[in-house]
Design brief:
Family: Belongs to the DprA/Smf family.
Protein name: DNA processing protein DprA
CATH class of the largest domain: Alpha Beta
Strand order of the largest sheet: 1-2-6-5-4-3-7-8-9
Helix content: 40-55%
Length: 419
């Protein structure tokens, strides 16, 4: 190895260990515990190393670095010199303390942004990349209120729920941390370049992968392990039965972290993963306050008053089981609900089942997609579709006449269920 300035010798040793093929983090931790810093490990005999971590680990440590190691080291030194960039090793006081409770903490972390966010109380919000509008709104609201209570929001920078969680986390004092499955010098997906820049400026981006590592499917379960390790609890917002979010939940459970899940409609595919882990013991939560209370995190009084204690589907309502109504809340007088089919004049009543339902327009299909699988108010639908009041109400009526939407008391609408 070439001669290095004294300040870079230790970094070079850590980098060499982190890149050693076949050296698992758990084995490296054994060696560090026995011999101290990396330089001391390299000075040990193969027999001494094998006696602590096994022959495979000894061979990995003593193998000469690859031919491109010097170029990799130069790239890391140059990257670290940029404003806001940090390379943090296991022996560094800046290393996230929560990761030290893992059996296999990464030897070296690449971090862009605020190191202090890796030493705070934190909660992960994760879920489907193909989030529904309702799911994205719930993720952003949960993240915002938890962040306003001083809790750091951790997620994986993926599309859908992750992105919404980061955006919400940026709105509060707790901030947000993105744990990524590529090198810290890359952004994946490309659609999140602007969000990643904002997180790097106001929050933190963390990776254990060498610089230049592209997105690979095999990297993301390991990324999920770090998400689980950084936090006190994991909240699953939406997840299909085979969602990667369930991997995060399983890993977090194995580490002794608390698992929470938001319930959804039994008709929604992205609720099935949440319902599954609830059946397996995850806590069902409907408000951010429930997460704070379960984890023992105090919420500032001012933040609690500002949140209004909002429920998942709006203000708390009462389910009328005998009438088969969904849980709904009283709306302000200014939000008047269109008359239901039972009270509308006969000329506007829903057609008999023997009649063909009216064809629906492109606007109606857009509105139906925006409605998702949970009750929504006119204000929510207007925000999602950017439709004017008159167009929105006429389109809702069209969908109701087609038997695809049901008007609920309190000015809410939901998809009609069909047997």
């Amino acid at each position: 190895m070439r001669t290095l300035p004294a300040t870079d010798i230790e970094l070079a040793a850590w980098l060499r260990l982190s890149l050693a093929p076949g050296l698992k983090p758990a084995a490296l931790r054994l060696l560090l515990g026995a011999f101290g810093l990396p330089q001391a490990i390299f000075n040990r005999s193969s027999e001494a190393l094998a006696g602590i971590a096994g022959e495979a680990a000894a061979r990995a440590v003593l193998a000469p670095p690859g031919p491109d190691f010097d170029a990799q080291l130069d790239a890391v030194i140059a990257w670290r010199a940029l404003a806001g960039n940090h390379v943090v090793t296991l022996d560094d006081p800046a290393y996230p303390p929560a990761l030290l409770t893992m059996p296999d903490p990464p030897p070296l972390l690449y971090i862009k942004g605020r190191l202090d966010l890796l030493h705070t109380r934190a909660v992960a919000l994760v879920g489907s990349r193909s989030a529904t509008p309702q799911g994205a709104e719930d993720a952003e609201r949960f993240a915002r209120e938890l962040s306003q209570a001083g809790v750091t929001i951790v997620s994986g920078l993926a599309l859908g729920i992750d992105g919404a969680a980061h955006r919400g986390g940026l709105e509060g004092a707790g901030g947000t941390v993105a744990v990524i499955g590529t090198g810290a010098d890359l952004v994946y997906p490309a659609a999140h370049h602007a969000l990643a820049r904002q997180i790097a400026a106001q929050g933190a981006i963390l990776s254990e992968w060498p610089l230049g590592t592209p997105a690979r499917a095999a990297n993301f379960p390991q990324r999920n392990r770090l998400i689980a390790g950084l936090v006190s609890g994991v909240v699953i917002v939406e997840a299909a039965m085979r969602s990667g979010s369930l991997i995060t939940a399983r890993l977090a459970n194995e580490m002794g972290r608390d698992i929470f899940a938001l319930p959804g409609s039994i008709h929604a595919p992205l609720s099935r993963g949440c319902h599954r882990i609830i059946k397996q013991g995850a806590r069902l939560v409907e408000t951010p306050d429930e997460v704070l209370e379960e984890l023992g995190f105090a919420k500032p009084v001012a933040a609690k008053a500002a949140s209004g204690q909002a429920m998942l589907w709006g203000d708390a309502g009462v389910r009328d089981a005998s009438a088969g109504l969904a849980s709904v809340a009283n709306q302000p007088d200014s939000v008047a609900a269109p008359a239901s089919a039972a009270t509308r004049p006969e000329s506007a009543a829903a057609p008999k089942s023997s009649m063909a339902p009216p064809a629906v327009s492109a606007e109606a299909l857009q509105l139906l997609d925006a409605l998702g699988h949970a009750p929504a108010t006119l204000e929510i639908l207007a925000s999602r579709t950017e439709m004017g009041d008159a167009a929105l109400q006429s389109t809702l009526l069209q969908l109701e006449l087609a038997g695809q939407v049901t008007a609920l008391p309190g000015g809410r609408f939901m998809r009609a269920t069909h047997s």
